[in-house]
Amino acid sequence: MSNLIVESTYGKLQGEQVNGVCSWKGIPFAKPPVGPLRFRAPELPDSWEGTRDATSFSAVAPQTRRDIMEFFGNDISNVSEDCLYLNVWSPAADDKKRPVMVWIHGGAFLAGSGSSNWYDGTSFANQGDVVVVTINYRLGVLGFLHLGEIGGADYATSGNCGILDQVAALQWVQENISKFGGDPNNVTIFGESAGAMSVGTLLGFPSAQGLFHKAILQSGAAASVHTAETATKVAGHLLTALQVEPTNLSKLEEMPVEQLLQAADLLPAMSLQPVIDGVSLPKHPEEAIAEGSAKDVTSLIGTNKDEFTIFTHFDPEWKDADDAKIKAIFDKTFGQLVPLISQHFAANVPLGQELFNKLVTITVFTHPARKLAELQAKQGAPVWMYRFDWETPVFNGALKATHALEIPFVWNNLDDENTINFTGNSPDRQLLASQMHQAWINFARNGDPNTTDLQEWPAYDLNNRSTMIFNRDSSVENDPNRMERIMWEQAAMLMKS
User: Fold this and answer.
1) Catalytic residue among 149, 192, 286, 307
2) Is 307 marked active-site?
3) Confidence at 1, pLDDT banded by 50, 70, 90
4) Is 77 a catalytic residue?
5) N or C: lower Cβ tally within 10 Å for the chain?
6) Contact predicate 103/119, CB 8 Å
7) Among the options 146, 226, 403, 437, which is catalytic?
8) Nearest CA-CA partner of 162 in 116, 208, 118
């Protein structure tokens, strides 16, 4: 079909049509970041002659196998450094100006891809008349190793290569999406976990300004960045493990990628993430947002009620942990704050896995999300807040409303085998999926998630703190977890004093 051949800036692309939706996969948005381009900002892709087949996904970014990602169905059978590609789903490649939704995948900045079955854009295109774009970006050591203080100007932005890849994809969208039936003046970026943390970073990232108009952050905010000092220490540990002298960084460009990945796997969790490098990211995203960097961006921000349960469930440290082991885990995670935590959150009852999950959920997810919402509300930017409370029955209900559980509901992709392993197969799932899917579509279309299937959902403000609670019976609550919020604020003040 002729309307499946699209003339992009760099050449013609041949897509395919399945179930009434057109798709184009494996579209290059930057040069392969290999050899001397390893640890460098992405460069524009080369043009091609003739028509490029765009019916298959590209390779995914280099990453190692992880149990939790395997449970989510992450496919790493085709991995390559040549990974900077994106995928498009659209009702038609015509002149219609449809809302555009650009998805940034999660995976702790170490794993994942834009080609997961979970992120199939067919339902958004069919149900919402929306154009969906999913992207890959460099991960882990290739995307977030800050070498600027060690290697100088040549490596000044190496710690943000993954974010710069996302910016390059958004620039591609601006230049090309109108050819696929999308409106470059109505772009919503959305992501989950590290994808949402990426969105939060992009809200304060100078070169991303003007490339998107709305933002959805699912279980991530604008708090997950390293200082240059911290990131340089991480880089030092990695260089030591790899036996690379700081004066010979070019050796890193020649090493097999597997060697880099194995060394990076020895680092603590979240050691590799965006960096305040003073060049691509001059200041903390929260600081930039407080100064108005995203005042023109409408936001939808939310978390899941029991974010951290899945991490401790898959963590062998918690298997049969006795009191001494549990205290050691708390000490390792919270350090000198443990007595304060016991006093404010545990009412001096013994420390345990349930309390640990609750505290990490607050620290890593709930508090940063609320802070971002408050920063945006103070700028006068429209903000909507949600919390996902639907609990999965799998593993005898142990996961509750855990991290990533909302994704198949948002995408309305409940029938995938990996989704059923995660959500179960009860028929009541579909009503919630339809509600959330439509809310996200409405938000992308006009900046307001209200739908006829939900009660009125007011914008978030500092007086009411209105929050949509997504569950079997979804409803709005004002200031949910109010006592937890107040206790956390009090504890935070004590930490500073």
Assistant:
1) 307
2) yes
3) very low
4) no
5) C
6) yes
7) 403
8) 208
